Amino acid sequence: MTDTTVHDSIETGTVRVNDDIEIAYERRGDGPDIVLINNFFMDRKSWRSYTANLAGGARLLSYDLRGQGESTPQTGEPVWEDHVTDLKALLDSLGIEKAFLLGTSFSTLICRDFAVAYPDRVHGLIFAGPAMSPYGGQRLRRITKSWLKTLDTGGLGVMYDQLYPLVSGDYAVETAGPTGFIGRKQNFLGIHTQESLRAGLAVSVKAPLEPELLTKVTQPTLLFVGGDDFSLGSDGAEQLARLLPDSETVTVPRGGHLAFLEEPEWFQKEVVAFVSRVLGADD
Q1: What is the structure's pLDDT at 141?
Q2: Which listed residue, of 101, 166, 208, 212, carries a Cα 20 to 30 Å from 110's Cα?
């Protein structure tokens, strides 16, 4: 069941993906379908400031993951695979047969798993700051578990204080200064509850992190990575690209883990060019 409203050229609505869960979404723009998939520190509205140019030549779909934003809160033990089946149910309900998937950080894993499970539904993948390692997942799991501990013992504010200097590049932190830090913290606290963030972190610990899973991805893939990414250095990005059968890499020299937030114009140009190349190759 789908409930839809259109206001100021943005279509918003909800899709019931099973008996218990409704997913809130929005669509804007016109052209090939690009699905923007949140990491667990975002909501669907977070994309608006960084994808305005993309909406000029593509139809963008963003949505709140279960447990996020305006989607149904997470109850019970979170299951990683639910995010993949939720995405399929959303695309089916909206009549989207094939799309590009754009993920960031942990949501690149959702993109990966969906592309492997439903290869005919995916034109190509854009991994912006992938939460992946070509060597294994132990480090990333330890980092995520430390964030869970910080959230449980210190709350959202302390969680953000720990998170900000990691996901932002050194140059971005210096440029933003104290004012930028405070502004982004206020936004972070405004879109999350401790319960919603904990659900996201808890399920991310369960995400499959085996490097060899990338070898099963058959679609063209764009890696948009920061040269100052705390979780993936230049060597790691190079090795990651070798695991993907059909990939290309763009490196932002001073960019952090979420380099697309720091260089949104550059990022959007690369996505537009990638989509054009893939669709041109399909003709």
Answers
A1: 94
A2: 166
pLDDT beneath 70: ranges in the chain:
1-8, 282-283
Query: What pLDDT was estimated at residue 78?
Result: 80
What pLDDT sits at residue 3? 61
59-63 and 33-37 strand pairing:
parallel
pLDDT value at residue 18: 87
Question: Distances in Å between the alpha carbon of 59 and those of 100, 124, 148, 279?
Answer: 10, 15, 35, 14
Q: How far is CA 26 from CA 39, 59, 88, 134, 223, in A?
A: 16, 10, 16, 34, 25
CA 118/CA 122 separation, integer angstroms: 7
Shortest CA distance to 34 belongs to which of 84, 98, 101?
Answer: 101
Gap between the terminal Cα atoms of the chain: 34
Cβ partners under 8 Å of residue 103, min gap 6: 37, 39, 109, 110, 111, 125, 126, 127, 128, 130
Distance CA 201, CA 190 (A): 18
